[in-house]
User: Fold this.
Amino acid sequence: MKKKNLIGLILCALVFFGGFLFKGSLNLYFNLASLMIVAGGTATAALLSFQIDRLIIVFRVVRASYGSRQKSEEEIVDILINLAIKSRGAGILSLQKDEHETSILFLRRGLGCLVDKYDPRQIRDILNTEMYFFKLRREDSERVLRTIADFCPAFGIVGSVAGLIPMLAGIDDTAIILQTVPLALTSILYGLIFAYFFFLPFAANLRERTNQELLLQKIIMEGILAIESEVNPTVLKTKLLSFLTPSSRKADLVPLARIRERFHIKDEEPQGPAVF
Assistant:
């Protein structure tokens, strides 16, 4: 997670939990029975719905999405430009060393196809297939998280009902009411917090991360195919910069003076004051 995101997360979380302390004590919102009902019920439903191996994979994907730093588009473009320069200078086989050095698996796969001298259509087909199934796997993990998020409020209602039943049974006993009302209310609170504070944000972050990685893979695929066809590195850079936002490639824009000179465009003469 980026430093700015982490700082913002901590500040917003402090504001959120500070709201619970504004008019009372934090102990009022802690109920072990409610926590056990919501957490245990959600975990049971998840285990009944999905295989344990699938849940472990989802946990690892979520942990990696927050714990590992993702390369930016600018870094990927620079890597591809350097590879293109090296390829033109020493040949495609000189990229074999880079196949094992880079940490990007998709780039390594593309470099492997180059080293093995695959046909450009085969390279595009292989990398497109890789991207397609990568997207399917990530969408499956996102679906698991959203399904678990749907379980949480439901078991919050279960905990609420579990608190209302003994309360109604002991309607004439004030002590029983005081014991069961916190269970009924905090269960719904826990269910909503688990769903909307954790699992749904996890799923949204996973989707954003997936879209970003698919964009990087698209850039890599176009760069790999350009390197295979021995495109001039300057032309390759111009092509790959189209994937970046205008703010990221502002320094590479051609000045207007050069455009006027190339197309023989004269500056417009200033118009005189209007006459009425």
About this structure: The CA atoms of residues 215 and 236 lie 17 Å apart. The radius of gyration is 29 Å. Residues 174-228 form the longest helix (55 residues).
